[in-house]
């Protein structure tokens, strides 16, 4: 018997601060983003100022801290710099 299944993808970003030991990176902050639809961010980087740059796509709604973006059932792209 075949079953239908779905995969829900959410975005979670975790920042770790180097403490001089490669085996122990203390947690600095983390944040989850998304709703019951799919969101993903394959591109996450930092710049020389310590800003976090996030590029990805979402369907449904997402709030990256500056307000909610709604895209319905369509796939939408985003770039966030914070």
Molecular structure report:
- The chain is an all-beta fold and 82 residues long.
- The protein has one domain (11-81).
- It is 0% helix and 57% strand.
- The chain has no helices and five strands.
- The chain has strands at residues 11-16, 27-33, 39-46, 52-63, 68-81.
- It is elongated.
What is the number of beta strands?
A: 5
Structural class: mainly beta
Biggest sheet strand line-up? 3-4-5
Q: Mean pLDDT score, rounded?
A: 74
Number of domains as seen in the coordinates: 1
The ordered H/E elements are EEEEE
In a nutshell, what does this entry contain?
By secondary structure, the chain is mainly β. 0% of the residues lie in helices and 57% in strands. The strands form two sheets. It has a three-stranded antiparallel β-sheet, with no helix packed on it. A two-stranded antiparallel ribbon has the order 1-2.
Key phrases:
82 residues, mainly beta, three-stranded antiparallel sheet, two-stranded antiparallel ribbon, 5 strands, 0% helix, 57% strand, elongated, disordered N terminus
């Amino acid at each position: 018997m075949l079953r239908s299944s779905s995969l829900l993808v959410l975005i979670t970003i975790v920042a770790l601060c180097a403490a001089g030991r490669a085996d122990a990176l203390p947690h600095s902050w983390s944040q989850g983003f998304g709703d019951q639809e799919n969101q993903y961010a394959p591109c996450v980087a930092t710049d020389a100022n310590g800003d976090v740059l996030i590029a990805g796509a979402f369907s449904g709604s997402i709030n990256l801290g500056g307000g909610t973006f709604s895209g319905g059932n369509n796939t939408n792209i985003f770039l966030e710099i914070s």
